[in-house]
Structures are given as C-alpha cells and as structure tokens.
Known about the structure:
single chain, mainly beta, 5-stranded antiparallel β-sheet, 4-stranded antiparallel β-sheet, 1 helix
Amino acid sequence: MKKRFSVFGLVFLSLFLFSYSCQDHQPPGEPPLLSTHELFYDSIHGKCSFTTELEVLNIGTIPVTEYGIVYNAALSGGSGPNRENPTIEDYPKIVFDMPFSTGIKQKVGPQICTNSNYYRAYAILSNGTVVYGQTLRFTNL
C-alpha cells in the first residue's frame, strides 16, 4: 500500500507541476530598433532650419508612447552632460507623429544656427525606459 500511495503522490505532483508549467507567462518585451539618419539643412523652411530623419527597423513588442530625435546643438562645441550622446532628460527633442511603425520618418526641426550638432533617435516605451539609435554628428565649418 505504501508503494501505491507513493506512486499516486508522484503522479499527482507531476501533474500539478506540469499544469503550472503550461500557464501563460509574460515573456520580457523586446524593445524597438532605431536607426538615426543624417540630417540636412532645409533651405525651403528658412535659414538654420533642418530636416531630421530616423528609421524604425523593428517596432519590438513593448508599446512606444513617444519617439523622435534628441539633439545637442551647440555653437563652438558646447558643453553639458552627455554632450556627445544627448539624452531626453538633458537636451531638446523633436517629437515625431504617432503611430509608431516601421519605415523612414522625417520631420522639419526647429531653427538652430549651429556649427556642431550631436543627435540620435529615441523612443520612450510604455514601461518608462528609453531606447536610442546611434549618435551622429553634424558639423558646419
């Protein structure tokens, strides 16, 4: 009788563990993948105006609440935290229109007369984290 109870207990425990392992688990989300493109001055919209461009390569699985370009336009090189890798906490940003989807996106930026500009694409995720594209530098010497 002892053996039968042990076998029954083992089967019950196995079934319990198996049913638990089949429950839906929320996998960690995949962030989007962004690419920063070269900016170019836009003579149509006036002196010192530029057009920014980014590419959404993959939208990921975590919803995006905002995306665009963050930049550090500084005369003669400028200074400040993360000057060469601007962050949304420290520098101005150009917010692109939703919806967030794959493809190349463009937006005319503000008028900034500068000879040095570090910039990169960003996306703010619904969980509060921020992902960035690569940093590029525009120089007009």
